[in-house]
Design a protein that fits this description.
65 residues; mainly alpha; 72% helix; 0% strand; globular
Length: 65
């Protein structure tokens, strides 16, 4: 299992609580590098929706360009 896959699994498990989601998303972004960060952001938006992600973690830029 890659670190990216592990981060996705953790985010799935804590998505019921926006505060936990924000904490784990921050941890994930600190642990991942380069393209993995972009991929995780895209996955989060696709999986949970842009509105959920922005509400849960407004301080995290979700720019994926």
């Amino acid at each position: 299992m890659t670190m990216l896959e592990y981060c996705k699994m953790i985010l799935e498990k804590v998505s019921f609580d926006m505060n936990l989601f924000r904490i784990e998303l921050k941890k994930a972004l600190d642990q991942l590098i380069g393209e993995e960060i972009t991929e995780l952001k895209k996955w989060c938006i696709t999986r949970f929706g842009l509105n959920y992600c922005k509400t849960a973690a407004p301080e995290i830029p979700l720019d994926i360009d």
